[in-house]
């Protein structure tokens, strides 16, 4: 499979996982856009003041933060309801970045948007297979 096809599959998967949590999302078409214009892949259709602009990345190699998150999971996650969270910050930046598995972010976003209750999210998390 080509890198372009892998990238398109990652974009489609991003929209699909939003739909699993009842998050209204729209896959943006890049056709007809200026190539110099910065665009995102998926837009969350939320009536809020925050515009959620989501971009997907695909790599055949392992992203470093994935490895770090897996290390945290192996070291600290002992119970069924434990979730690993990675916080990282570059010394030259004023901000840091939290990394969590996609279903954790989606659950928090679905709860915040009001598309799912806490109980529905917890049920989905307990039914979801363990991701690799």
Task: Describe the structure in your own words.
With 132 residues, the chain is an alpha+beta fold. 40% of the residues lie in helices and 11% in strands. The protein contains 4 helices and 5 strands; from the N terminus they run αβββαββαα. It has helices spanning 3-20, 64-76, 102-113, 118-127, and strands spanning 25-27, 42-44, 53-54, 86-88, 97-99. The strands form 2 sheets. A 3-stranded antiparallel β-sheet has the order 1-2-3, with helices on one face. Strand 2 and strand 3 form a beta hairpin. The longest helix has 18 residues, at 3-20.
Can you summarize this structure?
With 132 residues, the protein is of the alpha+beta class. Helices cover 40% and strands 11% of the residues. It has a 3-stranded antiparallel beta sheet, covered by helices on one side. The protein has a two-stranded antiparallel ribbon with strand order 4-5.
Helix content: 40-55%
Give a short account of the largest sheet: 3 strands, antiparallel
User: Are there runs of 5+ residues with pLDDT below 50, and where?
Assistant: 32-38
Give the percentage of residues in beta strands.
Answer: 5-15%
Distance between the termini: 21 Å
Strand arrangement across the biggest beta sheet: 1-2-3
User: Secondary-structure element order, as H and E?
Assistant: HEEEHEEHH
How many individual helices? 4
Number of extended strands: 5
- The 3D shape can be described as globular
Q: Roughly how many Å is the radius of gyration?
A: 16 Å
Structural class by SSE content: alpha+beta
User: What is the average per-residue confidence, as pLDDT, rounded to a whole number?
Assistant: 80
